[in-house]
Amino acid sequence: MSRTGPRRSESIRVAVLNAADDLLVEQGFAATTIEGIAARAGVAKQTIYRWWKSKVEILLDALADDALEGLAWAEPSGTAAEDLTAHLHRIAGFFQEPAGQVLQALLGHAQLDQGAAAALREGFLLRQRERDLAGLGAIIERHTGRTPDEENLARLTDLLLGPIYYRVLVFGEPADKDLLEATAHLTLKLAI
Amino acid sequence: MSRTGPRRSESIRVAVLNAADDLLVEQGFAATTIEGIAARAGVAKQTIYRWWKSKVEILLDALADDALEGLAWAEPSGTAAEDLTAHLHRIAGFFQEPAGQVLQALLGHAQLDQGAAAALREGFLLRQRERDLAGLGAIIERHTGRTPDEENLARLTDLLLGPIYYRVLVFGEPADKDLLEATAHLTLKLAI
Amino acid sequence: MSRTGPRRSESIRVAVLNAADDLLVEQGFAATTIEGIAARAGVAKQTIYRWWKSKVEILLDALADDALEGLAWAEPSGTAAEDLTAHLHRIAGFFQEPAGQVLQALLGHAQLDQGAAAALREGFLLRQRERDLAGLGAIIERHTGRTPDEENLARLTDLLLGPIYYRVLVFGEPADKDLLEATAHLTLKLAI
Amino acid sequence: MSRTGPRRSESIRVAVLNAADDLLVEQGFAATTIEGIAARAGVAKQTIYRWWKSKVEILLDALADDALEGLAWAEPSGTAAEDLTAHLHRIAGFFQEPAGQVLQALLGHAQLDQGAAAALREGFLLRQRERDLAGLGAIIERHTGRTPDEENLARLTDLLLGPIYYRVLVFGEPADKDLLEATAHLTLKLAI
DNA sequence: CACTAAACGAGACGGTACGTCTCGTCTTGTG
DNA sequence: CACAAGACGAGACGTACCGTCTCGTTTAGTG
Questions:
Q1: Do residues C168 and C71 touch, judged by C-beta distance below 8 A?
Q2: In this structure, which topology does domain B60-191 adopt according to CATH?
Q3: DSSP D130
Q4: Does the N terminus or the C terminus of chain C have fewer Cβ atoms within 10 A?
Q5: pLDDT, tens digit, for every residue of C103-138?
Q6: Are D64 and D124 in contact (CB under 8 A)?
Q7: How far apart are CA A145 and CA A148, in angstroms?
Q8: Residues 49-88 on chain D lying near strand F, CB distance under 7 A
Q9: CATH no. for C10-52
Q10: Distance from CA of A103 to the nearest CA of B (A)
């Protein structure tokens, strides 16, 4: 016997996530307040508090939809170097998009708040880590015929993704083409 | 003709920087408020606002003293690989110390606030970048006898430091020994 | 042709009135919210709003049953002074009972809300006024053989009841025995 | 050594009391919210909460200035009956003025809230009671040459003021001329 | 004995005000 | 004139109820 009464409104959920996204891109993280989101989404504050605990949760929700796509690995389709370089470009481009800015903000906030850090990890980063390991593993396997062991794969992933995140998070600017290619080649060199 | 009246009190400056440092480590960035710093330092709020524009500036000030030391490159003293690995360990250790936590917090906040990002860049990151370029350049030069050109050196620095910052900023945990060594070796391989 | 479907549930009506009564006595008027009444009565909010417009209406409903009895005039049975004094004691006692507290709260709220004042007047006070006029009139008539004219009777009623309400509403405490007796005697003195 | 720093702003105090007064008269007690008072007075909410605990305290403060004057006893100047009647008219008129409406609202709210009742008692009613006892006592003394004992005086005061408050608080309308005169005469009759 | 049709529980929703918190500015008197 | 103390305007916080609304479910009658 399912429960009675009205169900959670999907249109509200979407409106809130969009409002949060928009505010973050337009005004930045600090100005993205629950009140602001509520006003922008045309929704009562209490309605937001009913479904989300904090703006971090909202942004995490918003991220879940968009980032999985933006950071997805394409099917291997060329040489290993081409595939890797293409993926790095994909990442660099992602951080220019709204969803990428959301991720960047959440990563920033995670440095300042243990709880947010844990939530981001559980809600997004670990999942993404799996996909990164799998994506890189698939390319290596296709190229060498062998599946790298877990430990090596993890290390290779850090080597591959480290520099690009470093440029974005520390210097606030996307990595340039040459760096991406160098990173891809170097990672491959170690992988073989 | 020098002006009359009391001059800026150095003891207040130190008390404020220490209070900020302490609060950040003990309570985190969000709880490190100007009000809190003032109370902890036994100083009036207005006095702080007279000399600093924001808590970011205070922390930047605090960082200036400590981080330059914590992230300094030692004189080359062994093989290139040894020197690089040692420096990476130094960095990893730095993020466990108070000064490292201040830097981490400022990097986090920089993702959320354009102004803070610029201030951090001007006040610390660019200076540190120079030192990283110089430090890595010196090691390569000692090993190969040749000075790498600027472009290559920048790329090598990103490859070297990227993974370690990636692990700290994205996963909130220090890079493990193996990753550090792999990074150092790989960077060297490309450098030669 | 009478309509189909379930009829208004009497048990709900009683449960709501009791819940309201109880809450008022236990928690006070402000804490007597529609939500609280609904929860206490085990009833949906909408069900309450279907049958009552406000908590004032609910309390008025609750009063209707009890207060008519609590403020009723007994049959004249002794000397006029005795009867009057007895009735005043009845009133003083009434304000200690739950129903009396409900009336007191409604009188209080009526000072703050024109609509509630009107509702209380229509729903209770005017009816009670009639009964007070009649009750006092009957005693005077039995004592003097004459029926006082309306205007005089109204004035006498105000003189009789004023002090006791004054003590309750202004000082929050029941009138003492001596005041009640003095009031009764004085009213009689003027009546003759 | 007196303390440093800014002092409480008297102009703010006055602005808040006036705003509260105005709102109460224009919109009623329920619509007289702290937020509304703050907005109307051009003052931050926090500033209100710094100096007053609730809107009741604000209104009490507002009352303190005005009501002492509005309910003051004039110097005896005619016959006792004239003086008493004049004072009753004064009271009746007072309830038509803003200050009177404030008192009426506070009396109303006192029925609903123990704390407010106590505050009203302490902050106003007891003081006023003293003045009423003294005022009536003075008139009686001038008329009879004797000072009534305390107990009698209290009873006489209740008899004198009861009916007029009764008409206002229970029926929401001022007592008519005849009732005031009858009350005054009757009280006097008992006093002698 | 279906077939209405309203009553009912549950509770989501847009609002308003609450009382609290912290911000950055401004004001006042002391050393 | 730097400083402590702290009042002040501003505005977001998270909570409590408001009164309205939408859902299934339950409960009479009517045909």
A1: no
A2: Tetracycline Repressor; domain 2 (1.10.357)
A3: H
A4: N
A5: 999 999 999 999 999 999 999 999 999 999 999 999
A6: yes
A7: 10
A8: 50-51
A9: 1.10.10.60
A10: 10
